[in-house]
């Protein structure tokens, strides 16, 4: 049971330890969000965006979002530097209640002198009423491009309720094993 501070410290230590590896392409964790506090997310909280202490994947609370219609919620923005590879993978735990249409994460990479790009996996999220499940989406950067930040959004394509917990961002070589199903 690590606190968010423990996770952050572990990420920093892993980053420091990885400096001598010289870009061997092994996936490296860029950020981890336990979603035990609302101030972890970018979007301002209101009556539709709140902490749910009764429903979570990690037992310490999760983010609950209610939608009356399709909406996009800004979750995280993470600065990028010295990536070990061109593939960025976002994993999270998601749960849904009477979602009319799927809900899924969306990644945006931006900066570095090029137009931003985004990726989403519309069939990889949750829909209707689903219990906690692992969800992931990955983005492969063009050769030579060094975007300076990555954003994670939650896309809800209709009315319903979604919970999000335990979000992680990793970077590595494409197909190096950072993405589920990669070989
Ligand atoms: Ca949590």
Can you offer a commentary on this structure?
- With 183 residues, the protein is mostly beta strands.
- The chain has one helix at 4-18; strands at residues 28-33, 49-52, 62-67, 71-79, 87-111, 114-120, 126-140, 149-156, 160-172.
- It contains 1 helix and 9 strands, in the order H-E-E-E-E-E-E-E-E-E.
- It has one domain: Jelly Rolls, CATH 2.60.120.260.
- It is globular.
- It is 8% helix and 51% strand.
- Strands 1, 2, 3, 4, 5, 6, 7, 8 and 9 form a 9-stranded antiparallel sheet that branches.
- The protein binds calcium ion.
- Residues 34-36, 56, 58, 60-62, 165 line the site of calcium ion (CA).
- Calcium ion binds at residues 34-36, 56, 58, 60-62, 165.
In short:
With 183 residues, this protein is mostly beta strands. 8% of the residues lie in helices and 51% in strands. The structure holds calcium ion (CA).
What does the secondary structure layout of this molecule look like, with pairings?
Elements: H1 4-18, E1 28-33, E2 49-52, E3 62-67, E4 71-79, E5 87-111, E6 114-120, E7 126-140, E8 149-156, E9 160-172
This protein binds calcium ion (CA).
List its salient traits:
183 residues; mainly beta; Jelly Rolls; nine-stranded antiparallel beta sheet; 1 helix; 9 strands; globular; disordered N terminus; binds calcium ion
Report the sheet with the most strands, covering strand number, pairing sense and barrel closure: 9 strands, antiparallel
Multimeric state: single chain
**How many β strands by DSSP?**
9
- The chain-level structural class is mainly beta
Q: How many helices in DSSP terms?
A: 1
Total number of distinct structural domains: 1
Q: What is the molecular shape?
A: globular
**What is the straight-line distance between the termini?**
31 Å
- Can you identify the CATH class? Mainly Beta
């Amino acid at each position: 049971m690590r606190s968010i501070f423990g996770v952050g410290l572990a990420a920093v230590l892993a980053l420091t330890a990885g400096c001598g590896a010289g870009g061997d392409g092994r996936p490296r964790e860029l950020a981890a969000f336990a979603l035990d506090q609302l101030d972890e997310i970018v979007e301002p909280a209101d009556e539709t965006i709140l902490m749910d202490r009764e429903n979570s994947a990690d037992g310490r609370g999760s983010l609950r979002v209610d939608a009356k219609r399709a909406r996009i919620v800004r979750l995280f923005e993470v600065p990028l530097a010295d990536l070990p590879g061109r593939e960025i993978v976002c994993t999270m735990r998601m749960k849904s209640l009477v979602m009319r249409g799927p809900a899924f994460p969306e990644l945006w990479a931006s900066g570095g002198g090029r137009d931003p790009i985004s990726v989403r996996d519309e069939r990889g999220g949750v829909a209707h009423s689903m219990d906690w499940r692992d969800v992931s989406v990955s983005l492969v950067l063009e050769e030579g491009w060094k975007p300076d930040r990555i954003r994670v959004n939650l896309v809800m394509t209709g009315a319903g309720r979604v919970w999000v917990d335990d979000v992680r961002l990793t970077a590595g070589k494409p197909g190096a094993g950072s993405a589920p199903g990669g070989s």
